[in-house]
Amino acid sequence: VQLQASGGGLVQAGGSLRLSCAASGRTFRNYVMAWFRQAPGKEREFVAAIMWNGYNNYRYYSDSVKGRFAISRDNAKNTGYLQMNSLKPEDTAIYYCATREGSYSREVSLYNYWGQGTQVTVSS
Q: Among the four 5, 18, 41, 124, which has the fewest Cβ within 10 Å?
């Protein structure tokens, strides 16, 4: 699976951005799709994930973004999204999309495929 993340940029605090993650190479719907982020000097951390079980999408969020970010996916387009609202300066980071087969996880090491990252900068 190849992933291409896009949609980052510079935004003022309180603003919004939508990140996209285009997947190719395999059937996207069988994979958990997640977003992680890494701020300068910090470890990569889980942001959100979405898992399709054949009937429903299940969504998971870190406490720091719950209620502000929304993860979604369009299996027909092989694309995932992260809608980010009410952005804060502490959301500034490089955002990565990642996928894995199997069940949802928040562990970086359990994701097999990664996009190249897209920079999100939130000014105060």
A: 41
